[in-house]
Specification:
Helix content: under 10%
Strand order of the largest sheet: 1-2-3-5-4
Order of helices and strands: EEEEHE
Number of helices: 1
Largest sheet: 5 strands, mixed, barrel
Oligomer: single chain
Number of strands: 5
Number of domains: 1
CATH class: Mainly Beta
Length: 89
């Protein structure tokens, strides 16, 4: 899983039926110390995240399972909203 911060929305008036009903969010990947990595991705939102939320992101097959039973194509899915993080450093 990856950690990211939601920075925006993507609107697509036309998309495959399997993605209907899901928001598409722009997520900037961050380190566990909440430092930006300079990488962003678009993720299917399965938990109702909003701009500014720090989220957990599943990729690949795990992302596709997160949007079941829709069977829509997804390479990344937001599967949790992080309330707090603590590292040993």
């Amino acid at each position: 899983m990856l950690i990211g911060k939601v920075t925006g929305n993507v609107w697509a008036t036309r998309k495959l039926d399997g993605l209907n009903g899901f928001k598409l969010m722009i997520v900037e990947l961050i380190s566990p110390a909440e430092q930006e990595t300079g990488q962003s991705l678009v993720a299917v939102d399965t938990v109702g995240a909003g701009i500014g939320d720090v989220v957990l992101i599943a990729r690949g097959g795990a992302a596709r399972k997160a949007i079941l039973p829709s069977e829509g194509p997804a390479d990344a899915a937001i599967v949790g909203i992080i309330d707090n993080m603590e590292t040993g450093r």
